[in-house]
Design goal:
Shape: globular
Strand order of the largest sheet: 2-1-3-4
Structural class: alpha/beta
Strand content: 15-25%
Helix content: 40-55%
Radius of gyration: 15 Å
Length: 91
């Protein structure tokens, strides 16, 4: 599976590549600042899974049947909380 990282996640490209993912970024695809619909259409046309923190492209992807993962603030908060509790159990 190939990933398409939305603009806010472009800095994670190398991290995913280390984990053997084939990764494209919105900027690298020439879609920096593009409309949400254009990004979702690109994901569909190139059969890549869109990784985004923005609700609108996630909703459009859902409606169009495009593979995607919507990273919510709640997901990030839970991950950070778990990391803190694991590293500093006495806090």
């Amino acid at each position: 599976m190939r990933l398409l990282l939305d603009e806010m996640y472009a800095g994670l490209k190398e991290h995913f590549e280390v984990l053997w993912w084939e990764v494209r970024t919105v900027q690298g695809a020439g879609l920096g600042g593009a409309r949400d619909r254009d990004i979702v259409e690109y994901a569909r046309e190139h059969d890549v899974l869109l990784v985004t923190q923005d609700q609108r492209p996630a909703e459009l992807a859902e409606l169009l049947g495009v593979k995607h993962i919507f990273i919510t603030n709640a997901m990030v908060t839970k991950m950070i909380d778990a990391g803190i509790r694991e590293k500093y159990p006495s806090i």
